[in-house]
Write a structure and sequence with these properties.
The protein has 453 residues and is of the alpha+beta class. It has 2 domains: 3-58, no CATH class; 93-446, Porin (Beta Barrel). It contains 7 helices and 18 strands. The strands form 2 sheets. Strands 1-2-3-4-5-6-7-8-9-10-11-12-13-14-15-18 form a 16-stranded antiparallel beta barrel. The radius of gyration is 36 Å and the shape is elongated.
């Protein structure tokens, strides 16, 4: 029994006796026995304290007072974990991408044809403003799940996900560029499965300008899928080989055009830390089976606006994409890359195809300065990309200046060619075989996310 508890018992026993003594009343036989027991207990306590020393005055089960400067115990820290503890592994990232471009054709409407992002001439323009929120899985920390959301606004949003040619109801998903959840199954080295909407891995270029060699995007980026919605899985067969499989609605379809699902098989080979080689195959039926009804006002059905039950004739429609690209970091200053694609799209009885390739080179001649170049050839048979059969070429030269990490200035010269009059001129109906542009791009970003976004 602890000293504190013993004192409590002594108090409970002696309190009535003290009261009786104060009132000058004789003690009863029972009270006399209690006093005798108390004397015995006090003698035993004195002997115990003499044997154990001063340490006996603090009982083992009595909590010690915590000093103001004492650290919180790990168990308490977990129990009373602040919000920042949960968000410690979550990154909040933002980027702002704007530009001024000038088209020397002085085209009608100030329109740059065949551009994905830098679509206007002689105009200060917002390419995109984006917020990326991500909590990636961390198996070592015991967390097999994760999530990512990219919210995007600006001209690039209209290019990536604002076209009624792809989306039955583009207005529903337009600001949401990516939104997917992840779970890593405990299978072998870890089978990663995602569900939701994600940026396509077809083609070497992607959405965020800061991660690209050039400011403008290639024909191939503008032609290949921007995103998909559905399931994707990824598995590291070895340290140099990764396999991925997708089951999706289709090309740029947050909502499916039809009841058919498209599929893709992707192979990534990394024979060394400096070389990465990708071979991808995508196929699916991409034809519509309903008539678009974009924001029709009062719904014709008791359902959400824009949904339609007007059926279209079902045609044989099969898309095949053969995509491959390689990146080679020759050394700390030189990066080389190349891409080759072959695409066929058959809509009975018409068949069209695209054969295209691009070459890239980047030289980092100082920590803050770099020079990049791109050359591209694009054979558009049947007008899959440009709406007419033609052979397109473009050459791009981009100069980078990075004053500080998180702010990038890019100046770019680009010239587009066609084997037929195609690009807009300075008068209505006037078409030219070429288009030359000069662009200044300004990109800001911040956040704890590392590597490419």
């Amino acid at each position: 029994m602890s000293h504190a508890r013993l004192c409590l018992h002594v108090f409970l026993f002696t309190a009535p006796l003290l009261v009786a003594a104060d009132m000058d009343q004789p003690l009863t036989p029972r009270e006399q026995k209690l006093l005798a027991r108390i004397d015995t207990m006090e003698q035993r306590l004195a002997a115990l304290e003499a044997r154990l020393g001063p340490a006996a005055s603090v009982a083992p089960d009595t909590p010690k007072p915590v000093q103001a400067s004492s650290a919180v115990a790990p168990a308490d820290a977990k129990r009373f974990e602040p919000a920042g503890g949960f968000l410690a592994d979550t990154t909040f990232n933002m980027t702002l991408d704007g530009y001024y471009g000038y088209n020397f054709n002085q085209p009608v409407g100030r329109i740059n044809l065949l551009r994905a992002y830098d679509v206007l001439s002689n105009s200060f323009s917002l390419n995109q403003a984006t917020m990326v929120i991500e909590r990636a899985p961390d198996v070592e920390a015991g967390r097999r799940f994760g999530m990512r959301v990219d919210l995007q606004y600006g001209q690039a949003t209209e290019t990536l996900q604002g076209s009624a040619a792809n989306e039955p109801r583009p207005q529903v998903y337009r600001p949401v560029f990516q939104a997917y959840g992840t779970y890593i199954l405990p299978v072998g080295s870890g089978l990663t499965v995602d569900f939701g909407k994600w940026a396509s891995a077809l083609g070497i270029e992607n959405n965020y300008t800061k991660d690209q060699m050039n400011y403008s995007r290639s024909y191939l980026f503008n032609f290949l899928p921007f995103y998909h919605f559905g399931f994707r899985s990824s598995y590291n067969v070895s340290k140099w080989l990764n396999l991925s499989y997708w089951l999706v609605n289709g090309v740029q379809q947050s909502e499916d055009f039809n009841g058919n699902k498209s599929q893709a098989l992707l192979l990534t080979v990394k024979p060394s830390s400096k070389v990465a080689f990708n071979v991808n195959y995508y196929t699916g039926n991409e034809g519509r089976d309903t008539l678009p009804a974009l924001n029709p006002g009062i719904p014709t059905l008791p359902t959400q606006p824009g949904l339609s039950n007007v059926l279209l004739p079902t045609l044989g429609d099969r898309l095949h994409i053969y995509d491959s690209y390689v990146t080679w970091n020759l050394n700390s200053k030189v990066t080389l890359a190349a891409e080759a694609d072959y695409v066929t799209h058959r809509i009975e009885p018409i068949s069209a195809h695209v054969a295209a390739g691009a070459a890239y080179a980047r030289y980092q001649f100082a920590p803050k300065f770099a020079l990049s170049g791109r050359a591209e050839y694009f054979s558009d048979r049947g007008g899959l990309f440009s709406g007419t059969t033609q052979a397109l070429k473009e050459a791009t030269l981009t100069f980078d200046y990075l004053p500080v990490e998180g702010f990038l200035m890019r100046s770019e010269w680009r010239r587009d060619f066609s084997n037929r009059p195609f690009f807009l001129g300075d008068a209505t109906g006037l078409l030219k075989n070429e288009q030359t542009t000069a662009t200044l791009g300004l990109v800001w970003w911040f956040g704890r996310k590392t590597g490419g976004w």
